[in-house]
Amino acid sequence: MKALIPAMIVTFSMLASLQARAQPASSTHAPSEEAMDRAAATTYENLANAIIAIEATENELVKSILLGYHAAAHGHLHAAIADEKGRRSHLEHAATDIADIANEGDKRIQAVRQRLAKAGHTHNSDATTKEDYLFINSKEKKEFLALARRVSQLGGDAKPEEIRAIHDELRTLFEKAIAAE
User: What residues make up the domain containing 14?
Assistant: First the structure.
């Protein structure tokens, strides 16, 4: 996206320049230099608004994805408490959802983010790791991954109190990570 902006600016500038040269100087219909500058500035302002709107849309999309993983993890934790026979499976699914929160998406989402990063589209840069992120910084990522590991290690004989404690810890971590934005 960053490469697209300079290309569009050059294109608009060249078009404006070509239009000015194509108009005879004595033509009464020739736009004034001020009108051309005003049109270029308006077009650039519209482009800036579109870029800002696209970035805000991306932020909300990623936030909704994270909210979905969070809801799924909570659902699996609740199911693990209620379903003793399926407890291990529910805990494994919850661990996966928590890891997806940590990574701000599963492998498919990460592939899209990597493609955007290669094209020069970045978000927030973590001061410690220099990793790009939208909501989950490196410290929070470590906390979520540690929680996911603990959940995956609980196993089928986990006590409901242990699972409730994980549930509460996940809620606290998630609220802190999302509230910062």
Answer: 4-179
